[in-house]
Structures are given as structure tokens and as C-alpha cells.
Amino acid sequence: MARQTKRAFKYRFYPTDEQAAELARTLGCVRLVYNKALEERTRAWYTEQRRVSYVQSSAALTAWKKTDDLAFLAEVSSVPLQQALRHLQTAFTNFFAGRARYPRFKSKRKSRASAEYTSSAFRWRDGALTLAKMSEPLDIVWSRPLPVGTTPSTVTVSRDGAGRWFVSILCADTIARLDPVDRAVGVDAGITSLVTLSTGEKVTNPRHERRNRERLARAQKDLARKVKGSANQNKARRKVARIHARITDQRRDFLHKLSTRLVRENQTVVIEDLNVRNMVKNHSLARAISDAAWRDLRTMLEYKADWYGRELIVTDRWFPSSKTCSRCGTSTEAMPLDVREWECRCGVVHDRDVNAAKNILAAGLAVAACGADVRPKRRKSGRQTATKQEIQRATAELSRR
User: Fold this and answer.
1) Dist CA 26 CA 138 (whole Å)
2) Does residue 110 lie in a domain region?
3) I need a surface site. Which of 101, 114, 133, 395 has the fewest CB within 10 A?
4) Mean pLDDT in residue range 179-201
């Protein structure tokens, strides 16, 4: 059985000087249009209590192009500018629906620079991609083949802080489902061990940021000494960005390999819901938690499980997986972070992380089997949620079998 889906394939490319100049102008115009439209929407709401629609923003863009100050907007392809307005409309839709925060202005250096081209703004012929306003195709490094016979529907060009150019090609793809297997695994996220599996295996945290910390500190120190606005400062800033890009690439590669392995080897993967946003408020652990990138791992597991016909279960974040004995179900009163092994009253000595992974697996399978809700719940003062009570009851029953 196969699944039809839209899939993005990302490649690095090397533009000519003319292409780089055209793309740089386009990225700058996209950022300007997005920020100007956001400013207009914000002003209209706070001064007039009026919402501005996409149609109104599009009409304003046409008017901007006719002014002397913004006439240069007409020199680049109009499609990326319209797409920027559509992305802003989506951001506001998510905000008013409570799914996201209020849209933020795009920064020249801190925000990801990108421009999206639809099919009317590029030409795809014989495996060569040519964007609007360009006479030559992009010099793309085809690190992996596109699906046979596919035609791109959307192309997104981006440039990272290190000055590298990438193109993301969205096209239809057929993903073959994996053969079912009779295995399930619980995954407990950590810092010393990135993940601990219910099988007892511990995957060591590669700590990519920590391994490059000394090199990064030297580059940042060198950047701080440069004269503001000088060419040397730009060179030093680019060096810092290259180190950050290297760390990001290493981390993403490791997480892709780990998530693919977990999905391929197991029919069901059970993980614990983690509130990373609040956890990084612990200043002594914030750097290590950010380097672990647990949220990225969860995102990869979610879409890969959907692709390959696997099941991903997320247990309640308040379930005391570390404090509960996976043998008898007894829960201790407190479990400080420095306690890595503990002995239950039933006589079993537990490794903290392995025990937590076993409890996460038992909780996920039990709740899924009895049909209870496994979505994260807020803790209510004075009493346990029904989901938490059901998890503890079901876990204890499975442990006694």
C-alpha cells in the first residue's frame, strides 16, 4: 500500500553573480512587503479596530509599486511578493484561531530569508529549473533524485546566515508503507542520553553545540572586536554563522537517522509530551535542552509515522513516569534529578531512564487499548485528571501480568 502526498525536496545550488543579485533583490522586496503589510494591518487594528484582508493588502501592493519610493518593487517577480502576503494572511488566521502568536516583523539578519515561486513564476524543463526574471537555469546539486515523472508545483529559494543558497522543490510523491512489525517501543527523552528506549538501550546525546562551543566562542569573541559596520565585521559574522550552520546540519542529520530507525523498527512508538518552552526557563539546563532538540525529534517522528503507516502515541506530560515502578506500579513521593537509580519497595532496582521508558510504553499502549484520551491535559489542583488516573490504573494492571 502506498500513500500519495506532497513532499518537499531541498537542494543546495550555486547562483551566478547575476542570479545572486536578482535573488538578493527579491528577498529584500519580499521582506519589505511582508513588514509593510504587517505594519498596515497592525495600525488599522489599533487605530480603527479594522481588519485588513488579503485582497486589500494585494491592492495596497499594487499602489506601492506606483509610488516613487517603492517603484523598485516592480523590478522583481510579482509572485514571491504575492506569496508573502498570503503567508501573512495565514499567520493572522492562525493567530485569531489561537494556534499561534501575533505575527512578527522579519529581520534582515535574524529571520530566514526566503522567496516562494508558484508554477507561473518558474520553468521546469528536462530537469532544469529556471526562475522568473532569469535567463539561465539554477546550478543545483542534485543530492537525491526527484520522483520520476513529477512536476514541481512550488519552488522556495532561501539563503541561510552562512550565505548558502538552497532551493526547496514541492512535488507529488508516492511513499510506500512499511510492512507491519510486531514491536512497540517507549522513548524517554533526556540530556545525558538523548533518548532511552524501553528495551534498555540508551542513545548517547552527541551534544553538537557543546562539541563546537570552544570554536564558536572564539569566533564570537573575534566578532565582538570588529568595528561596527566594517567589512571585517561582516566576515566575522559570516564565520559565526557557518559554525552555527554546521551545528544545525549535524544535529538534523543525527535526528533524521534516529527517527527513521525508530519508525522502521517499531509499529508503535510512544513518547512523552514535553513542555520545552517552560523547561528552557531553567537557566542551568536551557543550553543543553536546546541542543537536544526534542521538539525536532518529535516533529520528525510525527510525519514519518504518518508516511510509513506507523502509530505515534503521545502520553500525558503529567504522568509520573520516572517515579512509578514499572514492576508493581507504586509511585514514590519525590525523585530529584540527581537520583539516577532507585529501589522500589518491591525490591526491584530501577535505572531512572529505562524505568521511565517502560512506563511510557505501558501507559501509551494501555490508554490506546482502552480508548481513553491521550492528549496532554492541564494539571488541576487538588485532584488528578481522568486521563492520568486511567493511565496509572492501566499501567499497574499491565505490570502485574
Assistant:
1) 15
2) yes
3) 101
4) 91
